[in-house]
Amino acid sequence: MDRDAFVVVIGSGTAGTACARRLAESGLRVAVVENDRVGGTCLWHGCMPKKALYHAAETYLGAGNAEEFGISCGGRSLDWESVLAWKWHTQETYAGDPAEGLAKRGIELVRGTARFEAPRKVRVDDRLLEPTDVVIACGSAPTIPPIPGAETADTSENALHYPRPPQSLAIVGAGYIAFEFAAIYAAFGARVTMLARGERLLEGYDSEVVAVARRRLEGMGVEFRLGAPTAALACTDGTARVTLDGGGTLDVERVLLATGRHPRVDELDPPAAGLALDERGHLVMDPLGRTSDPHVWVAGDARGGAMHTPLAKAEGLHVALAMLGEVTTPLDTAGLSTAVFTFPQLAMVGATEAQAQASGVPHLVHRQPIGATGAAVISDERDGLVKLIAGEDGRVLGAHVAGPEAADLVYPYALAVRAGLTLEEIRETPGIHPAYAQAVEWAAW
Length: 445
What we know:
Helix content is 30%, strand content 23%. By secondary structure, the protein is α/β, with parallel strands linked by helices. The protein has three domains: 6-142 and 262-323, FAD/NAD(P)-binding domain; 150-259, FAD/NAD(P)-binding domain; 344-442, Enolase-like, domain 1 (2-Layer Sandwich). It is globular.
């Protein structure tokens, strides 16, 4: 790549920032275009605010169970305005000054809405940029399904700012967004109904760990309706009616659409740049993230595949390295883990048992109930599971965790998958007692 190149990165989220920083470190002139707050979806509209609400919900639940441990909280109460204030505090504290962070690295921040005017000509409001290379990292937006009245319902972004917890909530969808908001608002007292179009919950996750979360949420009053497609929605302020396909209605205070997210690339007018699109309207790209124009690349949610912050960071860096000629092979995602912040937490890395069976590869399955650990007895968090998938040679191929701190417990397994560690090597590394980490070790026996 020409070291005098001018690269425009569209989007300041995780993928765009990772890419821009690496390119700037190599001495390239880089500009980042952003029409919202610097930091992207995860920081302002996704991971951080949702996890802050989740932590508040977890604390509220814990206060309700405090007497079990001999502690009186003097009557549990909920100050929702303070919960929302805490959410904003966590976001602002974690963010710091991201715009200043770009400036310190010599990256120009261009504020405004980007749109292609021609190949490698990017219009940002009244300014025309003519870069040698473009990285599309514009992120994603909630998908509004083709259901009559869907535009009247809430999305995952609205659900972060409810003026108060709803008394009743219908969630259309059965993925990670659905499970996370079901946990949050059920903890705060809402009557939650999850409406799944098909018969599967949390597609892509191991069915045994999903079953743990379903049990816990059902114990909190969440109702799961599988095979219940939504036919129509009618939502007004404080009241909503869900009409189900095949008959029947559900009256609730609010309806949340948790029906996935889609790349925001249509806002850029890709055809104006001569960029090819597939039948879904997604950008056509090679395994490195390069589009039909070899000087236009894509990273993060804009690709339209799995949408997770760790993956977006890895993709952003990988695109930068590919542009610099430092990598020529696709990104290795085998060791990238994901988590669902529901009750209890779920986390996974690598292959599921179903995938191993479908591949025909001989494999081993190890299971370890978390309830056997000292930490589970002490905290009375007994329902949980660690499940390992390994090859016949003992190498760890996948791991699936349901239980307290699952998002942290899965990380050693992510290292194991990436490094090709074996069950024996995990067994030789004792977990701390009494901690949930013991289940990480015990599952390998």
